[in-house]
Amino acid sequence: MTASDHAPFLELKAVTKQFGGLTAVDSIDLEVGEGEFFTIVGPSGSGKTTLLRMLAGMETPSSGDILLKGQRINDLPANQRPTCMVFQSLALFPHRTVGQNIEFSLKIRGVAPAERRVRALQLMRQLRLPEDYYGKSVTKCSGGERQRVALARALAYDPQILFFDEPLSAIDYKLRKTLEKELKDIHRETGKTFMYITHSLEEAMVMSDRIGVMRAGRLVQVGTPDQIYTTPKDKFVSEFMGEVNVIDVRLGTNGRVVSDMPGGSFAAPSLPAGFERGHLVIRPEFMRFLRRAEEAENSLVGRIYNEYALGSRIQYQVRVGTHVFVVERLRQQSFAGQLDAEVLIGWDARDSILVRD
Amino acid sequence: MAMAAERVGRSLAGWLWRPGQRHAIPILLLLLIGFAAPLLSILGFSFAPPRTFSLWQLPTLENYRTIVAETFYQSFLWSLGMAVVTVVILVLICYPVAYGLARTFGRWANLVTLLMVLPLFVSENVRLYGWVLFFIKGGVLLGSLKSLLGIDVESVLFTPGIIIFGMVYVYLPFMLFPMTLGVSMVPREVTEAASDLGASRLQVFREVELPLAMPGIVIGCLLTFVLAIGAIAEAKVLGGQTVIPVTHDIEIAFTYAQNWPLGAALAVLMTLLVGGLVLAVLRRFDLDRILGRR
Description:
The structure holds 2 protein chains of 2 kinds. Chain A is α+β, with helices and mostly antiparallel strands. Chain A has 2 domains: 3-233, 3-Layer(aba) Sandwich (Rossmann fold), CATH 3.40.50.300; 243-355, CATH 2.40.50.100. Chain A is 24% helix and 35% strand. Chain A is built from 8 helices and 20 strands. Chain A has helices at residues 48-56, 98-108, 113-126, 143-155, 173-190, 201-207, 225-230, 235-240, and strands at residues 8-19, 22-33, 37-41, 63-68, 71-72, 83-86, 161-165, 193-198, 210-215, 218-223, 245-251, 256-258, 265-267, 277-282, 288-290, 298-310, 313-320, 323-330, 342-347, 352-355. In chain A, strand 12 (256-258) and strand 13 (265-267) form a beta hairpin. In chain A, 39% of the residues are buried. Chain B has one domain (69-290): MetI-like fold, CATH 1.10.3720. Chain B has helices at residues 2-16, 19-46, 62-69, 72-104, 109-117, 124-135, 140-149, 160-184, 188-196, 201-229, 233-237, 246-254, 260-284, 287-290. In chain B, helix 2 (19-46) crosses helix 13 and helix 8 (160-184) packs across helix 10. Chain B contains 14 helices and no strands. At the A-B interface, strand 6 and helix 2 of A face helix 9 and helix 10 of B.
């Protein structure tokens, strides 16, 4: 899916937020389509939470416009926006039961108790919460159950957009993986627009239709998970994807790029127009050990410094001069390399990415 | 039987000698001598014949009969009424200030806290006499009004209203600080979530802020209620003895009247009244939650 598949549902025009002299969110333009699962990824302090809080109505933009279905909603307070937020802390009402939490928005809207109960139980079924949890205190629920209560509470009054402020960050790895998939399933079932923020690109990849990478208040790159993974726009985005090998290079001759390291002239993928200097990015899984230099388009001689077992893969730290490379192989592939052994590593030009600063 | 008693005796001694209990013995003795013994002797005196000074006499209900027969109920009502009014006024005054201290004052919160605490360093009586000088006929307020504007107003001194003013003034910190703690215990995100789910400012207050701040509010109310019902200086100094609270009756009985048993009986009734009310409130609100244990 790409942006053009969707009508502009939520539109941001040069949205900016300043706190004192600090610009937390810097002129963001973005269109999110109806029913899309859009994730904003960025390190802490990149302004992603501030952006989400402006969209939810908990902060007012310093300048710029937020439009929902073409209507400017800048000054609409949170309680009048047809949007709902799932907080990082979940912010459940600790003095209330599971049922009362889920029904809160309906109670506020004056829905009759019997009707509220029907809706709450329907949501609990949908989110796989046992029916007898209806009268249970939320403080007695486990982490995963609380996630589901928070989501049910947000869905109860049928908001048009759901915002998620890293709700899974405090959950252990295994449960998080399950909940990520569940959330994507819920997104399919409800067909609602989800807007999610996280600092984990891995989490974003699993769930999102599109991802926006944020850095220092700006959107660096917006694209599908595939686009972000295969063609990161710059060094920051490529490094945010996880461990990568980055070589500082400048333009050489015959479509090659050169670096300062010994033997540092490399076959490069197609050069961006007007490329002068930048970085050559190679993912660890595309680096391989060679028997002969001719087996790959680019090769380097290095020394194995250490190895790390990552489950299905094994990762090696290979030192070439002062430069450190990360190379991975599948566990079932045979390899006889010892620590401190001299090895030949290499990659093909099509597996590398050339990015600017 | 003897053997069983012996075993119980030995196990009791053994139980007392376990490290936890052993180390609790000094504080236990202090509490027995300093807290339980005076209470018990007051209880004993309340059953002694009127105007006697010994505990070792045949118990009688004479003192309680006197209290019921005479007009002491008025003092009880004054004490109770003024304490309740004081607590209600304090809740209304302190909630906005507590909210400000916990949420909106920011760096000014410390200054406000300091201003609230500073008067505590001056003796209560001195502060009350200060107010007398302020309110008395020809004093700071009325004297200034008369000499500057030529207005002659009756002094509010020596009325129930000024007694309540004095109690509100003196007990304000005891309501404010537990309440501030209560309000600051309400997570900001929870109120934001309520608002995000459609609640108006008033609904957020009623559905979320108030119930979650309740432990602090209840503690503040209990503290100020117990202090206010035991108040005596306000009625004597600012009220000029126009109103006699129970505490004043007790003082009179023990001093001028030299009727310890009557004073003791009044004190016992007062303790029962306050204790009963406090226990009723605590039964209504979970003590564990109030102390943050759950």
